[in-house]
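User: what does the whole thing look like in 3D?
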Amino acid sequence: MTETANGEAQPRLLKVTRDDQAKWYVADLSDYYSGKYPYVWLRDNCQCSQCYNKECLQRETLTADMDPEVLPASESVVDDGRALEVVWPDQHRSSYRADWLDCQRFSESQIDPISHPEYQVWGAEMNGNIPTFDYASILSTDKVLYEWLRVLQTTGIALVQRAPKEKGVCRQLAERVAFFRRTIYGEEWQVESKPNVSSLGYTSKYLVLHTDLPYYISPPEVQLLHCIEQAKGKGGENQFVDGWNIVRQLKAEHPEAYKLLSGVPIDYKNAATDQYPFHMKASRPIIDYDLRGELCMRYNDPIRAPYMLMPVEKVTEMYKAIKLFNQVIYRPQNLVHHRLTEGEMVTFNNRRLLHGRSSFEVQAGSSRLLEGGYIDWDEVRSRTRVLREKLYGIKRL
Ligand code: OGA
Ligand code: ZN
Ligand code: ZN
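Assistant: Here's the predicted 3D structure for the full assembly of 397 residues, as C-alpha cells:
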C-alpha cells in the first residue's frame, strides 16, 4: 500500500498469478487482501473505450459474446503495480487499474454495509434514548444528514427536533434526501381529527400498533411524522416496537405461531376515497421478508380484509397465532413510548417497526395535527452512498 496526498491507502498489485484450471487470476493487492478475478469476468469488464462507455458509465460488451472458457494470451503488471494489462487471444488489450480491482469483490464478507446494514435490535431500553437529530443541522450539514440516514438504517428510528411548526417540513427533509414515495394519500398527508374520514388515523381514537399501508405489495419504507400541533389535553402519545425483536421472541417462544405468521398470507384491503377513489389489495404474511431478506411487517387490524384467502382449516389457528403476536408486541419490555412535542418529528422504518397512538382529547378551538410522508430505501441508500463518497472518499462497491 502507498499513501495518496490526503493520506489514503492506495492499493498496488504486488503479485498476479494465473490459475488456468479455475480460470481466474489471483491478485495480491496489498499485504492483507488477495482477490480472485475470473477471466471471463475480466473480459466482460474491459475498461477500454470500445467495451465501456466512459461518458454514461455503462458496459457496451454483450454477455452473449463472451466465451466463459476464455484463457488470456498474456498479462503484465505495469506502472509500478498500479495496473494489470491483459492481452486476449484475439489480441484485444485490456487494462485494469489496481484501485478499480480493489473495489470489485465477489465474496459475501465484503458486502456493502449500506446495502446490508447491521441492525441494532432494541426494546424498552430505547425509552428516552431514541437517537435525536437537529432539523436545521440535517438541512445544512451533510455529515448530520449522513448520520441520520445511517441511524434509520441500523436502529430504524430517530427523532428530528426543533423543526418549524408548519406544513412542508416533511417535504424539506424528503427533498434533502431525494423525493417522496407517493401513495394513495399523495406525497405528504395530514393526520388530524376531522369528520367524514377515510381512515381511523384521522380520528382522535386509539390506534393499535400497526404498519402503514400493508395493502401495498411494496409498502412504503421510511416514514416521516411531523408534529405541527399536539393535543392540548391528555393523550396523543406514540408507541413503537422493533419488529426484529418481536421476530426473535416469537421464533424462540412460539415457533408454530411464527411459522403461520411468516408463512401464511393475510389479506389487506383498503377501499375508500381520499384524493380519489381507490381499492387496494395485497395478500402477504404478517411477518414478511423482502427480496433482500429484510423484514417487511404487515400488521394493521383496522384494514385487515374480512375475507381470508387461506385454507379454512387454518383460520382458527391463525387467530391464535395473531393473539400470541399481540401478546408479544405489547410486552412492556418491548414497547417504546414517545409523545411528540410541537416541531418534533419521528422518522422510522415502516417495514421493521410497528407504531401506534394513544387516543387524545379534542378540546374546543384546538386540534392535533401531524404531517407525514414516506421515502423509500432505494433513495435513502443511494443518498447515503453519495454522501459516503463525498465525505469519506469511499467508493467501494
Ligand atoms: C396513522 C398513524 C400516528 C399519530 O395515522 O397511521 O400512525 O400519531 N398516526 O396520529
Ligand atoms: Zn475492451
Ligand atoms: Zn400509522
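In plain terms: The chain has two domains: 2-107, 124-387. The longest strand covers residues 222-229.
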